[in-house]
Amino acid sequence: MKHLRLNIGLAAIILFAAACQTNTTNNTETTTETVKAVKPVIVTEPVVYDTDDPAIWVNPEDASKSLIVGTDKNEDGALFVFDLEGKIVQDKVVRGLKRPNNVDIAYGLNIGGKSVDIALTGERMTHNMRLFSLPDMQPLDGGGIPVFEGETGVEYRDLMGVALYKRPADGAIFAIMGRKTGPTDGTYLWQYLLEDNGQGGVKATLVRKFGMFSGNKEIEAIAVDDELGYIYYSDEGVGVRKYYADPEKGNEELALFATEGFTDDHEGISIFDTGNGKGFILVSDQQASQFKIYPREGSATNPHDHTLIESVLVSTVESDGSEISNVAFNATFKRGIFVAMSDDKTFQYYRVEDILPLD
């Protein structure tokens, strides 16, 4: 199937207005939530098995040549690479990965005295962290770095969610790794410091274990706000949990939000920066084909008070992962791009201004 490009304008955005509906039997009023429905501008060419999570690499020399990296989740899986038209860049695809779930990107890891952009994923079936350079997608991990070593619980080493954090103070880069299931004692996520191994690759050193888990369903989606220094993750049956990203700041849970209004699973998390510490946090309401939007900065009195702003109905089916950027990429994505996985082996590209209440 070739990629589908939909040229849509404002007419493609349908706004279902909030309304007060009178119940004629008891004269009570109920208020329905405002939900905006949006269609994608581009749908990618399909992967082979099962899309799960995307990440956006911004080309520092020419943003119009940026790339989307997405997982194909299977025991014969891959990291697919797409251009901004949704076409697969075949010579950059990494094949033969053992069930990669999520992917994330960070910029400027020092390897051999050079600044290298990296893509991180995890192989569920081998329990290995996998790292590749960008944009050439060459391995940096010697075939895989074992994680969750010493864990013996069933599926306690089966990798799922991943995220990267670059600490502004010193440029140190950390990998946050999640798994299919884990303990409820506050050690579900493990965080590793990534460094040059002296041989042209990367080594990973465990620096902390943190993160509460309800024991209900699982934890997959993880997102990091580098600038503000927070980690967010979806405890799928409960809500979104928030922690400090810097391991030196401790393991206190700062917030649990997005606990109401979800059809079933809490999934992908994306963070959009509008400047001055403000912006939006988007969370996938998976079974409703919606993304719920919360203020990145919290409230006027509490930076950890994230109250629902609105919901957006999209065309994705059972969306697990998503990513968003505020970069002006090209004439189509002048204010940024939102990329969301769909359960039909594709990723969908949206204009940021169609998704978010920017004005």
TrEMBL record:
InterPro entries per the UniProt record, alphabetical: 6-blade_b-propeller_TolB-like, B-propeller_Phytase
Any one Gene Ontology molecular-function term assigned to this protein's record: inositol hexakisphosphate 3-phosphatase activity
Domain named BPP: residues: 28-359
Keyword annotations: Signal
Signal among keywords: yes
Signal peptide: 1-19
Cited Pfam families: Phytase
The protein's name in its UniProt record: 3-phytase
UniProt lineage: Bacteria, Pseudomonadati, Bacteroidota, Cytophagia, Cytophagales
